[in-house]
Amino acid sequence: MKLLKPTWVNHNGKPIFSVDIHPDGTKFATGGQGQDSGKVVIWNMSPVLQEDDEKDENIPKMLCQMDNHLACVNCVRWSNSGMYLASGGDDKLIMVWKRATYIGPSTVFGSSGKLANVEQWRCVSILRSHSGDVMDVAWSPHDAWLASCSVDNTVVIWNAVKFPEILATLRGHSGLVKGLTWDPVGKYIASQADDRSLKVWRTLDWQLETSITKPFDEKFNPKIFKKKQKNGSSAKPSCPYCCCAVGSKDRSLSVWLTCLKRPLVVIHELFDKSIMDISWTLNGLGILVCSMDGSVAFLDFSQDELGDPLSEEEKSRIHQSTYGKSLAIMTEAQLSTAVIENPEMLKYQRRQQQQQLDQKSASARETSSATSVAGVVNGESLEDIRKNLLKKQVETRTADGRRRITPLCIAQLDTGDFSTAFFNSIPLSGSLAGTMLSSHNNPQLLPLDSSTPNSFGTSKPSTEPVATAGARPAGDTVSKDSVNATSTPAASSPSVLTTPSKIEPMKAFDSRFTERSKATPGAPALTSVTPTTMERLKEQNLVKELRPRDLLESSSDSDEKVPVAKPSSLSKRKLELEVETVEKKKKGRPRKESRLMPVSLSVQSPAALTAEKDAVCLSVPAPALKLPMPGPQRAFTLQVSSDPSMYIEVENEVTAVGGVKLSRLKCNREGKEWETVLTSRILTAAGSCDVVCVACEKRMLSVFSACGRRLLPPILLPSPISTLHCTGFYVMALTAAATLSVWDVHRQVVVVKEESLHSILAGSDMTVSQILLTQHGIPVMNLSDGKAYCFNPSLSTWNLVSDKQDSLAQCADFRSSLPPQDAMLCSGPLAIVQGRASTSGRQAARLFSVPHVVQQETTLAYLENQVAAALTLQSSHEYRHWLLLYARYLVNEGSTEEGAVEGATAGHRAESPLSAPLHRVSGAARYSEGQVACLGLPWLQQGQDHTLATDNAQDHLSPRQATEGRGDTGRRWAVLRQHRPSSLGRLPLFPGPVASSEEGSSADNSSLPSGPLCRAGAGALPCCPGVSEALPGLASPARSRGGH
Amino acid sequence: MAKVSVLNVAVLENPSPFHSPFRFEISFECSEDLADDLEWKIIYVGSAESEEFDQILDSVLVGPVPAGRHMFVFQADAPNPSLIPETDAVGVTVVLITCTYHGQEFIRVGYYVNNEYPSPELRESPPPKPDFSQLQRNILASNPRVTRFHINWDNNMDSLEAIENQDPALGCGLPLSCAPVKGLGLPGCIPGLVPENSMDCI
């Protein structure tokens, strides 16, 4: 027996009262208490069953959660068909849920969870009749009835075919009815109540058959809380026996076999609180147990322990001998030929026919409404609708003169299923917006192993090396690596081409924001596939749904785009096979500053390489390193940016002109579309708001402007493309031969010329887990060993900018110098590469008692590294952030030793004497305590004055104020001196006048030959809007001290 | 269960000058046909200090609402600057969108609004009296704070019982004095229901 407690199954610590496994075994539901309501959650089963799936970030764990119950949910039960889920709760309601297949993943608007619902389950019926809490619900065999029981002492039988019709209300219990169960054929229903009786009711006339009270009179163990029996019988020797699990209030769980006198197993202390519900798995060998303590446990037995289960036929034979022939024990096939023995069966047959009719008409309705929606969409995309909504919407005045708006209906509600596919904003027609990715696969894709969908799932099939053509041995590892890689490094990094990162500055307004700042998971679902393909895919376990993906929440008008594959596109495109991967993502407005494009790719080991056969011929002798190449796809779509909305659509070999097959490239930018044709197949595409480039077969790279003008004749690459990237006017091409080139197509200059990755990849099985191209055209490679290098074009060197194993980072503790809202400062390439700052430094101090001096040294060294890395990455925000942090640290530590700050100045002010350009002064200029020079950089936001220095005497902080400031808040003030670094060498140490001189700025000025005095932190705010935005934590004390 | 759930609120034309109208594109879903109209309101919080300065910018009826997904644009004029305390003109405040059915508020969407001078000069040395014509309004659209309240959708007393014990989700309310105040009954409100809406009474 194996025991597992999947901790991720929880209701945020709230009690879970019920658990039920879906009849097909792929999912299970839990019901219990939510935040301020009842909560029903549907979970994926496979992560419970398989460890691999649990670890796979792409497999969603939670499928859907419903907060609709007003009060705690006491029970959840799947119908036998698995089509419906019934839930009953303290709000006296029973809700019946059905999966809405037409709606893509979505989040709840404004929800803090940000977890997308991978599946959409919506309430199709609310059953109101009980006058007290609903304790249990049970579906009859064949789902003809739904029974519910309540603390109002009644059992209600609902017509499950025609909700909310009540067939009968069974009265007779004198206490609250706690549990219900049907016999396996649906002839009887048993209810168990607090009056210590169990009553059995006939389903024929809903009268009481018998009431069993005897065994309960004395022997009933009040501790036995919930009993659930399933798994029919297991025939081991000759005599079939039942297996039964009992959970109890004393927190123990026991599993009994009716052939044994003692329990098979008793488990104590499994939970902190009582066991509430138990559910058996499909094969009868596993049970899920939930507890009041809010956790769920899974027990997995082997067949040796429980015995071999009887087959369905054997079971029904036993049932038949016990209950007589009844409809429930017959399979569909038997039913048509069976002799009708009782009126029930006749009724059933009629009902079946009726249901078939219903289904037909329902499907007819669905198709009709689908077409009607498609009509709307085709005639006018939702984007268009939105644009004109204000003008078009009907507004009238009511009799009393009030405005009344008639809302525009964008989707019909059809028996709980939405027949429409779109949600907030995406037009579905040929011009697909959003992040829809459609990969049209070649037939030979099918025999591929299960890794393939993973790579589809990674939302960038166009750029990622998808193992397409033919099954290659290395394909498996390649895609897996890349999938893992995308999800592991720096959880905050947007792993998608399309969604650049941005951290809302206002996030820090409330600490709650920071907690949820990054998670906007999208979850694609595989939707439309031709039936035969679907089956085959399923067999190979190819149909996997992508785990919600963490994306940085980013936009100011954050629309949730839910593009969904449109079924009709099948016929339209006349593709033999089609797999559409649909992904929902939160669209974001790309922040100009930190527009980065991470992708993932991996490097195959040479061994794998040799085994690989690729259709694309290599013109360059194969080097030791070889990066995976994108295989040709029939078509794909790529979103370039969300604001302005821009996406690229590629269709290969669409038209044949005189025997030559042409490929089409379409680009849609805010509704304006251009297209062009190319003569060879397009392998991968990339784009930014300024350029669109596509790499074709035969090593051709074509670059177009965002408006569709061809900027260059095709570039011949030295070897086939592996990854293509665009940021601004920069185009980066990583070839299969592991060489990297970056061009500035605007100025038509090369930034990085065929630089080999050998130096950073050589010697080991490292892979590139992430690539960034900063807005300044600096490529950054994140490797699987946790190191990240950027290429410095001016020095032609690879510079190490981040190392996860860096012992400096692990020891550095500069928390005390962090501004309160640090999170928002750290957006930029460095933050993406390094991930969230860990608290390890702080812990290190506690863990192995580092001498303070040592920690100081490491912290200083670390901060200096960070400053240098930010500088090399030309990330102005981060440079400022780290520099200020460094300065603050120096002041805080009040180090007698010499602190070092790299001061770089730039000609930000014509009248300023400090006009040395950055690159000439970027050497080390060292300053003594508390004296820091800090300055603008040429590539800081143009037109903005970022200097911390000022000539304005009002802004000067007198030393006295500084001292008081220290006393008041404990925050020390740094007096930053701006200084012209005389050379790249060290500056002489200045006497520290920070808090010593009586007279303020004049004294300081006199002691310093050049450069005005200014204050850092709060003092610098008035003259530095950039910093004031960035450092609100400093801003507030400054304001509060305003009257001082 | 709420019959109406808001799917999305898109903030249009943001940021914009202080005097330009607010525009929200609201999409919502209705699970059953509604007998009556929904009433939407935009409330501008003039000062974090007191509800006294709240302004109801506009209120519209939306209907008829059959089952399905719907959208509309709610446009309302900018707040009256003369009603805003001078000290609160520049800085962060809140705008609320509320929706009521039968006089009961069931959803409240709050946004932080930052009013500031776009020009660095004004930012550095703001005029002593706020210059509203220069102010820019920036709604933090990515961070709606949504508070949902359980209300009685059916107008029958049976289900009312089930609801009255429900505490509205105050926990996630807005920090800036926007927490609903209990006990202020609105005319037309069913007794026993808490009309978690203090703004409306001003």
Automatic annotation (TrEMBL), chain A:
Biased-composition ranges, Polar residues, are 443-462
> Positions of the region Disordered?
350-373, 443-569, 950-971, 984-1011
Domain spans labelled Protein HIRA-like C-terminal: 708-896
Q: Which SUPFAM superfamilies match?
A: WD40 repeat-like
Q: Offer an example of a GO molecular function term for this protein.
A: nucleosome binding
Report keywords, A-Z. Chromatin regulator, Nucleus, Repeat, Repressor, Transcription, Transcription regulation, WD repeat
Which spans of this chain does UniProt mark as WD repeats? 66-98, 127-159, 170-201
Q: Which family does it belong to?
A: Belongs to the WD repeat HIR1 family.
Q: What does this protein do?
A: Required for replication-independent chromatin assembly and for the periodic repression of histone gene transcription during the cell cycle.
Tell me the protein's name.
Answer: Protein HIRA
UniProtKB/TrEMBL annotation, chain B:
Q: Gene Ontology cellular component?
A: chromatin; nucleus
Keywords attached to this Swiss-Prot or TrEMBL record, sorted alphabetically, are: Chaperone, Chromatin regulator, Nucleus, Transcription, Transcription regulation
Q: Which family does it belong to?
A: Belongs to the ASF1 family.
| The protein's name in its UniProt record | Anti-silencing function 1B histone chaperone
- Which is a Pfam family this sequence falls into? ASF1_hist_chap
Could you state one GO biological process linked to this protein? DNA replication-dependent chromatin assembly
Q: Which gene encodes it?
A: ASF1B
InterPro entries on file: ASF1-like, ASF1-like_sf
Q: Which residues form the signal peptide?
A: none
